[in-house]
Specification:
alpha/beta, Immunoglobulin-like, 7-stranded beta/alpha barrel, 4 domains, 5-stranded antiparallel beta sheet, 5-stranded parallel beta sheet
């Protein structure tokens, strides 16, 4: 590993840096020399006369040759008392070592501009005064005259054989490695960027993860985010990337398919845990009333991981963002079936502070019963995620030393377990990680084991419970961010509840992507994704609508039935209710006499229309409006109410008046005619006979 003198001050502030370069006396010299340690062999010494070799290079970073350089080895015969004192030394918090090796090397030839020259020290534990088991400090320093130009600090682990003394129990070591990225799709068919293509390249993070997986021991437990697998699977089939001006269609990605095939093969015999789909911010969801999304993410995550890895996976373990959660989030996970949580050790501190390394397993209480907390070791975990330029030499020395000290620590449970887990969204260095994993497998005081084998012991150090700080709460996705996500979740639920089958929503995955913890540090991108999904859900809901809303309906007479029709332009059968209410009850009421509107579940096939004839009664003539609300079978409103105009005419009453008047006129005419006919007729004379006249 190389460290410039120019960054010595910054390194002294980094608590766990594996090495420190000492600041020289002048600004010019700070940028002049680089000192690197290429190898320290063996990893640990076991006898007083075993040779220990340290080697590396001195580099001149200036444009002129440098002469008069010397390199020397500093050491101390006093071992570190504990891990904390070693940390203080390596982070530059303690003074330089007082002892200097008698064989200071003078670099006789000058170091050319932008050139380098090798160096090497070979010593034995006896020569360095190492007199028993322990970890001892050493440093390599380069000087020019009396000026120190740069220094690299490291350690030597000495484990001499101790005949007749029992060996301490081995420390059980479990390693968890994450395969997590941010969501790259909005809805299932649209990518918001094409960053995964770069990650699959030879220098990309995903390519590095695949390299680690091919050589990692089968004891390593992999925490895989299924949404990432889902994105890559979609890429392997061809995909569309949303652009500012237009969308871009991209053909099937051979790199995505190759990566998936490689991971399936590499992880076939290793323990795999499926994280909740899209890695949602569980604590934020618990605090903002989005409980259902956590349960859905757990179920969907398991389904996708099994399908895409083509094997069974574990779903009863979770690794929350930053390795921290509170009781609310723990309860949500426990109700969803989670029995184990991987947490930062600071999230579950001991009741009494201690410098000793505590056992990794602890028990937490939840509403669903006890949950096992596996607590990561922060120092060892950081060693697995050093920068890409780290050769791994000094990190390996630090790893050997840390684990050796742990193995000799006293405590209530000497046969302790330790868990290593780098940060969830890390930049893996395959060479470094593979070196540390191989080293762990060879150290006689360690026993590599799977994460699932670590259980709380009968005797546990009392813990203070979950320590979720105010800063942890501030780091969550905010209520402001999640408000539109909550609305989106409600709309997405409707798209499934309106269907006759009532299966999971096709937008469940999209909602979970919007709720991903990845947006904690990128809320703008998260909001953009949420808006895109909202548009897609809105368009999907618009496929089911009341027809003819812009055309008035006519109610002929004081009462009658008005048809209300619904069109299903979607691809699935639907089941819904149609609720109609009058907005002008003084003009129009729903129902006709004793006939009340019947609330019937309406079934409409895909691509078909259906409807009801709604009885209505008009109290007067004129226009009135009614509101038509579609609801799911469970009574959830589907979309906004639609207003229809009903035109009432009162034609039946008018017709009766007209008919009555016509009948009256006709009757009067008939009577008049009869009277006139009778009035115009003369009376007949009485018949007389001659005989009567002549009596």
């Amino acid at each position: 590993m190389i460290r410039k003198a120019a960054i010595a001050v910054a390194l002294s502030a980094a608590l766990l840096a594996p090495l420190v370069a000492t600041a020289p006396s002048t600004a010019a010299s700070k940028q002049a020399v680089e000192l690197s340690v290429a190898a320290v062999t063996p990893d640990y010494a076991t006898g007083p006369n075993m040779e220990i070799k340290l080697s590396g290079t001195v580099s001149n970073t200036t444009s002129a040759a440098m002469s008069g350089l010397s390199i020397r080895l500093r050491y101390s015969s006093q071992r570190f008392a504990d891990r904390a004192s070693m940390q203080a030394y390596l982070s530059g918090q303690t003074p330089q070592l007082g002892l200097i090796s008698t064989s200071t090397q003078l670099l006789n030839q000058s170091v050319a501009a932008n050139g380098s020259t090798p160096w090497e020290f070979v010593r034995t534990p006896a020569a360095l005064g190492l007199n028993g088991f322990g970890v001892y400090p050493v440093a390599v320093e380069i000087t020019q005259g009396y000026t120190s130009l740069a220094e690299v600090r490291t350690v030597i682990t000495y484990t001499p054989d101790q005949p007749g003394q029992p060996r301490p129990p081995k420390t059980r070591l479990a390693v968890a490695l994450p395969v997590i990225d941010q969501p790259h799709r909005s809805d299932d068919g649209t990518f918001i960027d094409d960053k995964l293509a770069a990650a699959l390249g030879s220098k990309g993070d995903l390519a590095d993860l695949a390299k680690i997986a091919t050589t990692a021991p089968k004891s390593v437990t992999w925490f895989v985010e299924p949404g990432l697998l889902d994105d890559l699977d979609r890429m392997s089939q061809g995909y569309t990337v949303h652009g500012k001006d237009s969308d871009q269609k991209i053909g099937p990605s051979a790199a995505a398919k190759q990566w998936l095939d490689s991971m399936r093969s590499s992880l076939a015999a290793a323990p795999v845990v499926a994280l909740p789909y899209a890695d949602p911010d569980v604590t934020a969801l618990a605090h903002q009333g989005l409980d259902a999304q956590t349960g859905r993410a757990l179920v969907l995550g398991g389904q996708k991981a099994r399908a895409l890895l083509k094997r069974d996976v574990q779903t009863a373990a979770a690794w929350p963002v930053n390795g921290a959660l509170d009781d609310d989030a723990l309860d949500l996970l426990a109700v969803g079936g989670v029995k184990t949580v991987l947490l930062n050790s600071a999230n579950v501190p001991p009741q009494q502070p201690t410098t000793a390394t505590l056992d990794a397993a602890a028990t937490l209480d939840s509403v669903a019963g006890p949950v096992t907390a596996l607590l990561t070791d922060p120092e060892l975990s950081r060693l697995f995620e050093a920068g890409a330029g780290d050769s791994g030499t000094l990190s390996k020395q630090r790893f050997v030393a840390e684990t050796a000290l742990i193995s000799r620590e006293e405590g209530p449970n000497p046969a302790r377990s330790v868990v290593i887990a780098p940060s969830r969204r890390w930049n893996p260095n395959p060479a470094l990680v593979n070196t540390l994993l191989k080293t762990a497998g060879k150290l006689p005081w360690l026993q590599m084991t799977q994460l699932g084998s670590i259980k709380p012991g009968k005797v546990q150090v009392p813990r203070a419970g979950l320590a979720y700080t105010d800063q942890d709460r501030k780091d969550e996705l905010s209520a402001k961010y999640l408000a539109p996500v909550k609305d989106l979740a409600a709309s997405a639920l409707l798209t499934s509840q309106i269907t006759a089958a009532k299966g999971p929503s096709a937008f469940d995955a999209a909602v979970l992507r919007a709720a991903s913890s990845a947006w904690r540090n990128s809320t703008r991108a998260g909001r953009s994704l949420t808006k895109q999904v909202q548009s897609t859900v809105k368009a999907d809901m618009a496929q089911i609508q009341v027809t003819g809303a812009d055309r008035p309906r006519t109610l002929a007479g004081t009462d009658g039935k008005v048809p209300v029709s619904v069109r299903n332009s979607g691809s699935k059968p639907i089941a819904l209710y149609i609720d109609v209410t009058s907005n002008d009850p003084e003009v129009l009421t729903i129902g006709s006499g004793s006939e009340k509107p019947k609330r019937e579940l309406l079934q409409i096939l895909a691509g078909q229309s259906g409807g009801l004839n709604v009885p209505m009664t008009a109290k007067s003539s004129g226009d009135a409006t009614v509101s038509v609300q579609l609801t799911t079978a469970d009574g959830l409103p589907y979309g906004k109410p639609v207003k229809l105009t009903i035109r009432t005419t009162g034609y039946t009453g008018i017709a009766l008046v007209i008919v009555g008047a016509a009948l009256a006129v006709m009757l009067a005419a008939v009577v008049t005619r009869i009277v006139r006919r009778r009035a115009g007729r003369k009376p007949a004379s009485s018949p007389r006979t001659r005989e009567s006249e002549s009596v």
